[in-house]
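Q: Please design a sequence for this.
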């Protein structure tokens, strides 16, 4: 059976003969339609570039954040993955989240210091069953918070005690 490989920001290998010979149709007509962003069905043949996908892919890790008081701003324009070390915090840390991209996913790794510190998330963060993370209270414990931004709210989930 013959095959064809199409590369347009995404590589597909599809059959061109035999009982599944839809490869030529895809190459000659459908591929142009799915290669554009206009969603009209006609397609403009423009290649989908990685810049259109980049906000949804964790390509960057922000610098480790170390709150010295009880507040911390997390700027998602510095990376989809953030590290938050609570060892220098003086109490419960209230977070401010900035510069999200609609449809993007974010990960916040939280590391405890010698003294346990809790986190307060903005009201725009929604949790399953309205239950915010219950962080591990052990020194140097590592917890993970994942957020999806839908344009209005962050939809969160968490996993704890990565020891």
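A: Design:
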């Amino acid at each position: 059976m013959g095959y064809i490989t199409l590369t347009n920001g995404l590589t597909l290998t599809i059959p061109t003969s035999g009982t599944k010979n839809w490869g030529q149709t895809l190459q000659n007509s459908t591929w142009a339609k799915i290669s554009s962003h206009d969603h009209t069905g006609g397609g403009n043949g423009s290649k989908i570039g990685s810049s259109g996908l980049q906000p949804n892919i964790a390509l960057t890790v922000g610098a480790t954040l170390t709150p010295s008081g009880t507040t911390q701003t997390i700027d998602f324009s510095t990376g989809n993955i953030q590290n938050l070390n609570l060892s220098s915090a003086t109490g419960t840390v209230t977070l401010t989240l900035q510069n999200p991209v609609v449809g993007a996913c974010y990960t916040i790794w939280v590391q405890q210091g010698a003294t346990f510190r809790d986190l307060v998330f903005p009201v725009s963060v929604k949790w399953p069953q309205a239950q915010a993370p219950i962080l591990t209270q052990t020194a140097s414990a590592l917890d993970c918070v994942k957020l999806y931004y839908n344009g209005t709210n962050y939809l969160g989930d968490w996993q704890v005690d990565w020891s």
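Q: Thanks. Anything notable?
A: Strands lie at 3-7, 11-15, 71-75, 81-85, 93-98, 105-111, 119-120, 125-126, 142-149, 154-159. The chain has a mean pLDDT of 80.
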